[in-house]
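We emphasize that the prediction below concerns an isolated chain of 134 residues; any contacts that depend on oligomerization or on bound cofactors are therefore not represented. The input was used exactly as deposited, without trimming of termini.
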Amino acid sequence: MQGGAGAKKSSSTDNYNIAVAIMKARRKGEKAFPSTDIAPLVEMALAVVATNFKEYPELYPELKSEDPKMKAVHESITRLIDPKLPITVTARNVDYEFYWEKKCKDLKNCKKEDHGGSYKQAFIERSIEDLLEK
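Result of the prediction step, given as a token string:
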């Protein structure tokens, strides 16, 4: 049992040392841990939302907002969503043209001009066309 208590004490000591390093760096106007090895928490959170998009696509539209900061978050998540996700998951929820443009690049001769000027419409129509031909 002493090993467990010792490990706990070491962890709190590590946390204390980290806090001291952060405070010293703030006083000097520097970053405490300037390494890029660790992603910022916001980036990690966005990646988790994008990774789990397939399981919870209905939550994604709720992030839409007129607030510029929330709009930036929504766009960031969209950029991270896997373009290989099925159309049944993405069609209802993703409206950003850059996402659909990325998906259209996998299709031959898929031009938005031939489909109402929209990459989303082009991808959906081409997908339906392919299904009907098969």
